[in-house]
């Protein structure tokens, strides 16, 4: 049985924790009346997230192709990459659905 490489998962976890800490600091600064440090806007954050998901999907595709062509025999790594890609796509789809629902709710509000 091969050992599963969790360095990528740990790096993603650390990124999430860092983003959470930055959001908490920004929230505390806004609550105390101080101007927050320059933070990227919503659009920039979404673009960065979509680019990261796109990179994960390309990596999964490349690993799948390498496995299919016999360049690697690490099926666990291929399946892990495909699962990350699947979760990223599902996350993107759910975010899109929530944003679309919020837009529809706002547009249906009486003026």
What does this structure look like?
With 111 residues, this protein is mainly alpha-helical. It has a domain at 41-107. It contains three helices and no strands. α2 (42-68) runs antiparallel to α3. The termini are far apart. The model has no long low-confidence stretch (mean pLDDT 85).
Quick description:
This protein is an all-alpha fold. The chain has three helices and no strands. Helix 2 runs antiparallel to helix 3 (about 75-105).
Element layout with pairings:
Layout: H1 7-31, H2 42-68, H3 75-107
Helix pairs in contact: 2-3
Poorly predicted ranges (pLDDT <50, ≥5 residues)?
Answer: none
Counting DSSP H or I runs of 4 or more residues, the number of helices is 3
Query: What amount of the residues lies in strands?
Result: under 5%
Q: Structural class, please?
A: mainly alpha
- Overall shape: it is flat
Mean pLDDT: 85
Share in helix: over 70%
Question: How many whole angstroms does the radius of gyration measure?
Answer: 19 Å
Major sheet description: none
What quaternary form is this?
single chain
List how many beta strands DSSP finds.
0
State the end-to-end CA separation: 63 Å
Order of helices and strands: HHH
């Amino acid at each position: 049985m091969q050992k599963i490489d969790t360095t990528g998962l740990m790096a993603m976890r650390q990124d999430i924790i860092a983003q959470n800490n930055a959001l908490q600091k920004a929230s505390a600064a806004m609550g105390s009346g101080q101007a927050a440090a320059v933070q990227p806007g919503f659009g920039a954050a979404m673009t960065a997230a979509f680019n990261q998901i796109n990179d994960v999907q390309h990596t999964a595709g490349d690993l799948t192709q390498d496995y299919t062509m016999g360049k690697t025999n690490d099926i666990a790594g291929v399946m892990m990459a495909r699962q990350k890609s699947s979760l990223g796509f599902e996350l993107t789809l759910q975010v899109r659905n929530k944003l679309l629902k919020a837009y529809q709710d706002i547009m249906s509000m009486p003026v």
